[in-house]
Amino acid sequence: MKKALLTCLLAASATAVSAQQRTKATLNHLALYVQDLEKATVFYRDLVGLDTIPEPFHDGKHTWFSVGPKSHLHLIAGATGPHTGDRNSHICFSVPSVESFIEKLAKAGIPFINWAGEKGKVTKRVDGVQQIYLQDPDGYWVEVNDAKE
Fold first, then answer.
1. From residue 32, how far is each of 49, 79, 82, 113 by CA, in Å?
2. Cα 92 from Cα 47, distance rounded (Å)
3. Which pTM was predicted?
4. Strand, helix or coil at 76?
5. Distance (Å, whole) CA 63 – CA 54
6. Helices vs. strands in the chain: H and E counts, helices first
7. Are 40 and 65 in contact (CB under 8 A)?
8. Which of 130, 131, 135, 147 would bridge with 98, disulfide CB 3.0–4.6 Å?
9. pLDDT tens by residue, 31-78
10. What is the spatial distance between Cα 112 and Cα 134, in angstroms, rounded to a whole number?
11. What is the number of other CB atoms lying within 10 angstroms of the CB of residue 134?
């Protein structure tokens, strides 16, 4: 009897945890409105290193990327001008090595700054993570860091 009661309690607890997890919001996608879809696609695919994934529209106006488990980045063509905004509003990608990423930027002729705005410098956060900031072809700010988690 005790064993059956314990089994029921464990099952009820697991069901409650599962139901609780399903009610939390999760990130599905980020969308960026871009002027030149091909330039933006090359930036995120070839420079940042994201994998493209199928998009349902097949209209030449969208590129989708996987950016994590069940999370995507959607590029949407049609912007009539560059994005203007402060780097406090940015998207961030973690890479195995900021130094190796900086080498890719140098080969591509793409400048970067640290948090203080110093050109070609790297910020080292208080937790030891190194980070840089750059802008994509449309002016969106992108942070690249070497955070492990």
1. 17, 9, 11, 22
2. 14
3. 0.84
4. strand
5. 8
6. 3, 8
7. no
8. 130
9. 999 999 999 999 999 999 999 999 999 999 999 999 999 999 999 999
10. 5
11. 21
